Amino acid sequence: MDLKRRLAFTTMATLTMALVLPAATVQAQDKSIVMASTTSTDQSGLFGHLLPAFRQASGIDVRVVAVGTGQALDMARRGDADVVFVHDQVAEEKFVADGWGLKRQAVMYNDFVLIGPASDPAKAKGGNIAEALLRVAAAKASFISRGDKSGTHAAELRLWKQAGADLAAAKPSGYKECGCGMGPALNMAASTGAYVLADRGTWLAFKNRADLAVLVEGDKALFNQYGVMVVNPAKHPHVKQAAAQAFADWVVSPVGQGVIASYKIGGEQLFFPNAGR
């Protein structure tokens, strides 16, 4: 091949690559989504188990931003997420009713538990969460609140209200808001011998327990439901609706539900699938 033909061939190849690479980049970008979710799904280790299975089934990568449910919903309202996976049904239904999400689908549940020192100085142990919280308050025992507008924080506030305690008027003397995720809140409780409301999944995955123990469980008021919602592209046209919907459909499918059910720590199941119920 003479020099002129070689130069012409090189130029053509360069132009071809210049045209192909942007298309390949766009295609690669379409194979990834951002999911705003809670610290409990992340810190429990569920996503480390769930998302590789979804990636294998779909070829879609999911980048998780794990924050409190309130912050996750705010992210979606700003258009900073394609899909939301959280656990505050009241807030989720409002999110959809206000037009930010296309549809809310139930995915799975577990429960909240009241954690505290094994010695239980407030005598809170039992099966009634309202009674337990009132005993913690009466004993002026230290209680760590997430204080971060997360799903767990919203549940905690509802439980105090059901117990007849008006936190807006006066918080118990030992009540402390950390403005932090579930893991840090548990760490604070472990280091100070405090009580804390936690989701069971994060508790089972938590390693730094010190002398903390589960003191209250089994009350129906402690039920913890999770839902998934695709962000409405009518609000934010850049939302990757097709890929986000692929995740939402997969996680409520028999295959996705089976992957959730198979996630265990020490032989104990952390989340229980209940899509369509």
Automatic annotation (TrEMBL):
Q: Does the keyword Signal apply?
A: yes
| Residues in the signal sequence | 1-28
> Which UniProt keyword terms apply here?
Signal
Q: Where is the PBP domain?
A: 26-254
Q: Which Pfam families match?
A: PBP_like_2
* Highest taxon, organism lineage: Bacteria
Keyword match Coiled coil? no
Sections of the chain in a coiled coil? none
Q: Specify the protein name.
A: Tungstate transport system substrate-binding protein
> What species was this sequence derived from?
Sphaerotilus montanus
